[in-house]
Design a protein that fits this description.
single chain, extended
């Protein structure tokens, strides 16, 4: 009975040994190279090491456009305004209730009123600005057929002009200048890598300085080896 049981167990679950030549599969294709796949019968070394590729519908852009980004921008602007306004309202409420000598439920009620009033006002302001900016950006992208820094600068300037258009010509110009300044800072920050490459390309002295500084340890090591 025991022998039949052991025979059946060896049939369905055979024991493996390291002496079996079929078990001596190399872990790597070659020394210090990529590991072999235990499931697929090919060497992953031959696979191209590139960036992840995604499938896009025909004619679709490879990144989200302004219309898709508008929803997140408006939502983040409203939440940021509510948080900043709520903190400011809490500070103003604490100061006002302390000066007025309010305590207990009356003070808590006044604090809630300050927080809700100033938080909603700031959230409404930033939300309106985000809607204006996103609308101008989407219209410019569709009209020009491209999405670049010019759209950002134009949309921000138009947003500032429109937001202050009812406050007079002077304040309208100030609003447009503020929008243009903020957009310029944003564009310079996002394009800092391209600006650095542009400076190195059109400034030979800077290019030589950067390369010599980068390769100086190699030059010193080579000179030391020659001596």
């Amino acid at each position: 009975m025991e022998s039949s049981t052991s025979e059946s167990s060896n049939t369905y679950a055979p024991s493996y040994s390291n002496r079996d030549p079929g078990m001596n599969v190399p872990v790597h294709s070659q020394q210090n190279l990529a590991p072999l796949s235990p499931y697929l019968n090919f060497d992953p070394v031959y696979l191209p090491q590139s960036q992840p590729e995604f499938i896009f519908p025909e004619g679709a852009a490879r990144q989200r456009g302004r219309f898709e980004l508008a929803f997140s921008q408006i939502g983040v602007s409203c939440m940021t305004g509510a948080a900043v306004g709520g903190i400011g309202g809490l500070y103003n409420g604490l100061r006002s209730t302390t000066l007025a000598g309010h305590t207990g439920k009356l003070r808590r009620t006044q604090l809630l009123n300050y927080v809700m009033k100033q938080g909603s006002a700031t959230a409404n302001t930033l939300g309106v600005l985000a809607v204006m900016y996103s609308g101008f950006g989407v219209l410019l992208s569709w009209g020009r057929g491209s999405d670049d820094e010019l759209n950002t600068l134009t949309a921000a300037t138009a947003t500032g002009l429109l937001y202050k258009s009812t406050a007079g010509l002077k304040k309208c110009g100030i609003g447009g200048a503020v929008g243009l300044g903020l957009a310029s800072i944003y564009c310079l920050w996002t394009a800092r890598d391209r600006l650095q490459g542009f400076r190195q390309e059109y400034n030979p002295a800077l290019w030589v300085y950067v390369n010599v500084r980068h390769n100086l340890p190699s030059y010193m090591a080579l000179e030391h080896a020659c001596h």
